[in-house]
């Protein structure tokens, strides 16, 4: 395990998202104290959305008007579709705190300008990110949240796909996701690595094998989560069941 990678283990998923939510608030407050604003990347999935619900209960001293919200991946579905990660994030938190609408940066909708073309949607999102970075790159996010599937996928980067092999572009379209819906838009591993902090929120026995593979040298093409690292730190936040195959130390 490299120096910037650490593991936190919690009793269950509820404890995990409670602790992660408190740390998320702390990171945003610290970024705002340092430069007046914060930039975070949200994820979908049980724990990613569970964390947002916990933040809603305990929002701390965050100035919500000065947070930029981006998404790590999106199911390329019509605006308002309940399976969109962004819709779930709104229900869990964003509709309940005083965000600045111009600082919400959802990925394009499946029924909008780019309908039927997740690749074009990915190019558009990449331009949006570059515009916010003020360069050809993308912002250095304060934290990028990630869930992980049982086969090791993060964002919409599935094992042995072009998307997980992408070495240059920060955002790509996916047309053959093994987990429905088939069409998605996702930050790539180079995109994830622009974040200062990457946090993987993983719970459940069905994920234990992929967790231990990712932390013991699996190739990202086989276990995409293995390639998800932050420029400053990477934290695996696990419940006991997901951590079951890791050595006690
Ligand atoms: O499809 C997706 O799945 C992952 C993992 O979800 P989980 O419920 O197994 O934690 C999620 O992080 C990603 O954003 C989403 O599009």
UniProtKB/TrEMBL annotation:
Pathway recorded for this protein: Carbohydrate degradation; pentose phosphate pathway; D-ribulose 5-phosphate from D-glucose 6-phosphate (oxidative stage): step 2/3
Coiled coil: none
Organism: Rhodococcus maanshanensis
Protein name: 6-phosphogluconolactonase
Residue span(s) of domain Glucosamine/galactosamine-6-phosphate isomerase: 12-236
Family: Belongs to the glucosamine/galactosamine-6-phosphate isomerase family. 6-phosphogluconolactonase subfamily.
One Gene Ontology term of the molecular function aspect: 6-phosphogluconolactonase activity
E.C. number: 3.1.1.31
Organism lineage: Bacteria, Bacillati, Actinomycetota, Actinomycetes, Mycobacteriales
């Amino acid at each position: 395990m490299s120096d910037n990678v650490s593991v936190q283990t919690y009793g269950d998923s509820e404890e995990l998202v409670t602790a992660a939510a408190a740390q998320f608030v702390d990171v945003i407050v610290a970024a705002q104290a340092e430069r007046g604003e914060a930039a975070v990347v949200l994820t979908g999935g049980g724990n990613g959305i569970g964390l947002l619900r916990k933040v809603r209960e305990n929002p701390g001293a965050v100035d919500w008007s000065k947070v930029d919200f981006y998404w790590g991946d999106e199911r390329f579905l019509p605006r308002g579709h309940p399976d969109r990660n962004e819709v779930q994030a709104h229900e869990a938190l964003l509709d309940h705190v005083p965000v600045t609408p111009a600082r919400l940066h959802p990925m394009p909708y499946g029924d909008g300008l780019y309908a039927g073309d997740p690749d074009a949607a990915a190019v558009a999102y990449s331009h949006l990110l570059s515009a916010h970075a003020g360069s050809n790159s993308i912002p250095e996010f304060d934290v990028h949240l990630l869930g992980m599937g049982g086969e090791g996928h993060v964002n919409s980067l599935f094992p042995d796909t072009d998307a997980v092999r992408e070495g240059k572009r920060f955002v790509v379209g996916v047309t053959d996701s093994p987990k429905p819906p088939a069409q998605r838009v996702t930050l790539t591993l180079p995109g994830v690595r622009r974040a200062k902090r990457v946090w993987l929120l993983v719970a459940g026995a069905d994920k234990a094998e992929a967790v231990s593979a990712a932390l013991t040298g699996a190739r990202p093409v086989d276990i995409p989560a293995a390639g998800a690292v932050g420029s400053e730190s990477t934290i695996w936040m696990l419940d006991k069941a997901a951590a079951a195959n890791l050595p006690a130390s």
